[in-house]
Amino acid sequence: MKNLALIFMISIFGLSSAQQQPKVLKTKFSKEALGQKLENEEGKNITVQQILDQHKGKVLIIDFWAGWCIDCLKALPKAEELEKNNPNVDFVFLSLEKSKEGFNKSLDKFNMKDKDNYWFSSGWKNNFNNYIDLNWIPRYMIIDQKSSIAKYYAISPEDPEIQETINRLLK
């Protein structure tokens, strides 16, 4: 009986912490979310708004990841394939590493140096991640040419809706 109760508790609590699609799929960012600061590889601050401005007029995929995240590392080859298959799409990688050293180490270890990388030095809980209901990584978002959210929630680069959204936006 104890084993059955333990299995029940693990399944209930395990499911509650797993990635779940947010109830509201947002299409715009809040002012607070856009003002969120990140750091680039050189340690310079940049806001989400500035990142979006750099990619305005292009379809942009935001990939949330970390080098300590097993699911993220498993997804990396497929994310690279998605990037290779969509040369007209920009990709930005937002890291949830726990330290600047971890960020730099992961960029080296996973051959990410040649990509557009930023790190949430403020940690997981911040205005941007709270606004987008980030509860697990990896996570992917597609931003359209006008900096609106075209695909709010995907947990795999193999999600067919990612390619469908890209195709629709590039028509």
UniProtKB/TrEMBL annotation:
Which keywords does this chain's UniProt record carry?
A: Cytochrome c-type biogenesis, Disulfide bond, Redox-active center
**InterPro entries in UniProt:** Thioredoxin-like_fold, Thioredoxin-like_sf, Thioredoxin_domain, Thioredoxin_ResA/DsbE_sf
PROSITE patterns recorded: THIOREDOXIN_2 (PS51352)
Q: Does the keyword Disulfide bond apply?
A: yes
Task: Using the record's annotation, list all stretches that form the Thioredoxin domain.
Answer: 27-171
Cellular location(s): Cell envelope
| This protein's name | Alkyl hydroperoxide reductase
